[in-house]
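Reviewer 2 asked us to include a model.

Predict the structure of this chain.
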Amino acid sequence: MMNELERPPPPPPTEAAVSTVEDSAGWGALDQLPGNPMMWILILSEILVFGAFFVGFGVARAVDPLTFDTSQASLDRLLGGINTLVLLSSGVLVAQAVRLRAEHSIRKARILTGGAMVLGVLFLVVKITEYAGKAEQGIGIETNTFFTLFYLMTGFHALHVVLGLIILAVVSWKCSLENMETGAAFWHMVDLIWIILYPIVYLIR
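Predicted model (structure tokens):
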């Protein structure tokens, strides 16, 4: 019998074994979500940022309700409502695009993703129109606390729409199912944030 000191060391783990161990560690609960887990980490972080905006908006309103009510009354609720319908419609198209990609209908998935992107551009056009109208009235980010938060919140959201359009363009080009699910997850986050933002900023008094 060989002495334990004389036994050769065990062979190093193979690449396949290392991969298996890494896969078993995984991303925890994020592994159960569609798309790339890294996108869900980004989404959760962005939700926290917007959540801080919403809390700050609520606190500022409580401190100066008269200014907030007067300023809110000057917003164009119709344009905000139109943009809500636009984003919801684009979200439906993206969801259908993912379904079609899962059924291997790549061309149709790309067409629907393109339609969602057109609606995303329309959202930005409506938002720019709203900003232009406010500028004509002499209203800007420094007018008062309400409009400071209005421009910060809606402008930050608009930047996410732009980023979402870029992501949709990339996943439509590299049209794997995982890529489509990843892009759809981000786009639905953009939808969700606006659905919360619209009533808080435009409607609730």
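The chain has one domain: 38-203. The first helix runs from residue 15 to 25. We have added this to the supplementary material.
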